Amino acid sequence: MIIGQIKNGIVLDHITAGKGMDLYQILGLDKLECQVAIIKNADSAKLGKKDIIKINEVIDINFDAIGYVDPRVTVNIINDGKLIKRTRIQMPEIIEDIIICKNPRCITTTEQDIKHVFKLTDREKGIYRCIYCESKAE
Amino acid sequence: MRSLIDIQELTTSEIEELIAVSEDIIAHPEKFSQKCAGKKLATLFFEPSTRTRLSFEAAMYELGGNVIGFSEGASSSSAKGESVVDTVKTVSCYADIIAMRHHKEGAPLVASLKAGIPLINAGDGGHNHPTQTLADLFTIKKEKGGFENLVIGLCGDLKFGRTVHSLISALSRYENIKFVLISPEELAIPDYIKEEILKKKNIEYTEVSEMQDVMPELDILYMTRVQKERFFNEADYIRLRDSYILNNEKLLNAKKDLSILHPLPRVNEIAVEVDADPRACYFKQVLNGKYIRMALILKLLEVEV
Prior knowledge:
By secondary structure, chain A is mostly beta strands.
């Protein structure tokens, strides 16, 4: 399957196979007007299989959201058909307003205008917990 | 300006300092009787309480201060839909320090970020209750002389029992501590306590469902109430409430110097006959709680002692 190169835009590469749609949703790519391609289960020498997302426009990307979903991703910025910047993503220490706390007893379920903040408590296992009630992020 | 939301915010030396001040208050109450003259404590209790609220109020009065506040959410503007943040911003205009209890987990943290004055978490749902832990620690120090080399049995509702969570968190910093977690499966300790504290700090613990088998090895038995307000359905509450009742018979094979603690209120989980046993420490805990809250108020208000 061939998907053409983009001239100006962003390529999210080395996405763990199966997480492409999760990233698509958490980054709100469905709201974009430009062309977006999701490639599932592409061959990868390093990973065996991987997902790739190509966005045919340079947009503001929430690196924390990517790091939360899949810290293995690399973000490539393409300008005039050339790679001008490659960023390896890190698992962020804190994520704000990316996911919401599902604990019905948490203050975030009732208090208005409160940020949903999660803290990385176990880097090895990638566990995030709500800073208010300590529930694990799902 | 400092608040107290989680017991982990206090260092080991700060806990020792609070205990030392509490002992000084007991020995020399007159020295402290006007330390908070002109200061006001606001007790914001969105959830009912007898001990904690009255303990805070008694503590402030014994320091020469005054108290304002409410004892249930229904008598505050929260009943009209006011946010926690707006309530504490308002109260901050009237008081010097806040003690707050709320049924929602994390509410005191949210409040403390906007309060502008020190705020003490007086219990947030099933989450944390740091001042009860200070009372527990002060009692353990008085009864056992220290916090090391202890086998601590925690019995009853370990899932929603916020005092249990805070106590484990506090004791986990001491050497050679072992926890015996006694509860039905439905009320077992939450995973974050096991993962973030016990396993991370390599603390020995066992989980059992019967109290009697483990009784001989315990130095401390911390009983808790199976709390109706933490259940979503009454059938589960009724099924589990009588599971773990301590009586004289169950104490027959316990150590002679066992200390029995309970954050109170009790319903029926400790038979009244146990009150006469010299190993029962739960009413001493109540008194100790007042003194350590006095010490905490002084510390957070930065009053020289």
